[in-house]
Amino acid sequence: MKNVLLINAHQFYEGISSGELNRTMVSTIEEEVEELGYEIQHTVIERGYDIHAEVQKHLWADIIILQSPVYWFGMPW
Q: In whole angstroms, how large is the CA radius of gyration of the chain?
């Protein structure tokens, strides 16, 4: 079995970006990897995170998926 860490790196911007597309993408990815029998853990950057817990998630994960918005054809800083 594979372990997947799924990171939603969206940042909310009032009136510009609500994050709906990234939430949809994360949900779709989650459904697909669960069907393949993978274990999943999540991180939503916008909600904050504990550094120690994130290190443990990264050590646990076989696959790390970073779902991020795209601004001007690149990832935000």
A: 13
Quote the tokens at residue 25.
């993408």
Burial 23-60 (b: 16+ CB within 10 A, else e): eebbeebbeebeeeebebbebbeeeeeeeeeeeebeee
> 2 CB contacts (<8 Å, ≥6 apart)?
36, 38, 39, 62, 63
Q: Give the predicted TM-score (pTM) of the model.
A: 0.80
pLDDT digits (tens, 9 = 90+) for 24-39: 889 999 999 999 999 9
Query: How many whole angstroms separate alpha carbon 4 and alpha carbon 73?
Result: 26
Separation of CA 77 from chain center: 16
The strand pairing partners of 67, in sequence order, are: 8
The whole-angstrom separation of Cα 11 and Cα 28 is 19
